[in-house]
Amino acid sequence: MKTNRALRITNIFLGLISVGLFIYDGVLLKRIRPLMETWGTLTEHDNDLLLLFGIGLLVLVIYYGLSLIQIMRVMRHSEKLPVGMVLIFVLVAVAALFVVSVVVLMMDINNQYEAGFAQPEWNLVYPILAAQMGVALLLLILHAAGTFTRIKQKAIVQDMNIFMIVQVVGVVCGGMGFVMNLLGFLYPKSWNTLIHTVMGSVVMLIPYLLMVGYWLVMKIGEKSKNLYDEKQTRDIGRSAILTLITATVLMVVLFITQFNALDGVVRYLWLPLYLFGVIFLFSASNLFFSRKA
Amino acid sequence: MKLENRLRKYRFDHDQISQQDLANAVGVTRLTIHSIENSKFNPSTLLALRIAAFFGVAVEDIFFLVSENKDEL
Q1: Residue ranges covered by each domain of chain A
Q2: FRET partner for A258 with CA separation of 20 to 30 A, picked from A151, A195, B4, B9?
Q3: Domain limits at B59?
Q4: Cβ contacts of A92 within 8 Å, gap of 6 or more
Q5: Which of B7, B26, B32, B37 to mutate to test the interface with A (most CBs of A within 10 A)?
Q6: What's this model's pTM, rounded to 2 decimal places?
Q7: Across the A/B interface, how many CB contacts are shorter than 8 Å?
Q8: Between chains, do B31 and A231 touch, taking CB under 8 Å as contact?
Q9: In-domain check, residue B13
């Protein structure tokens, strides 16, 4: 309970800072954008102000991270998995992933500016920042209202909720990672292996890996010595066979359709496509089989 | 042949114990108990024995076979 209260106060504090920094971002970008679009000179002072913009994004990531931990702590001990809470969890997780997209967009804008090119990416930065501010505000209101500290909690021996949340995160990260890498086929010429494939994939994998790690740590702390109970073991078995068959078919289709272009983007995109496809399929089928009772 | 059970009845006769409390007592998740009650999942022998021991009855009192067509049993 004490930890929950401490988390709540910290999150309210971080939420207020984040919202304040969003207002700062709005004022700063209003000044910087016309300057960069006309290839004006950025002063040392402008660069310092942009540094604070970056720090603001870091604060936002910490705010989202701590909020996710608090939501998980509440959901873990809920008797039934609260659907509304799961939706908020997914929303915050997706918003956290999109913080990276802001960083990538700002890097692209800077590169275009230095090369003397137009910067159409500005049109994406504003809606993403506006959506981020919406999520940060919503979280702040929920934290202030004590939504994440009021749920009736019950002792459990074998956890079910975190297992389900891992699957939800798997569906989100797997799906987003798969779609993201699929874009490489649509825009092969502007595809950057290091930024889009490697960095993008790592960013999409981190929340899933963190969730699996959290679930493992919680499992070790539980009274039960089994990682899964027997129904979960059966469900995982079904999911595994479904994933194996579907992933094999998908990879064969990918190979056949790309047969004449195997030295193209598919040369390095096959791995992330396979990885995220498997995470998505396995998590989605686990969710399906778990709830089918 | 299909495995059916009287788990819900035993839970209610047992001070209306919740699915979560029963799950805690036998070391499984609440969803597993829920699935067993709805005959969507057949428990292992070990789990069936644990459940029976929890209620202090024989396994056959809770779990029983029913025929799915007239030729069986």
Answers
A1: 1-155, 160-293
A2: A195
A3: 2-66
A4: A64, A67, A68, A71, A135, A139
A5: B32
A6: 0.77
A7: 53
A8: yes
A9: yes
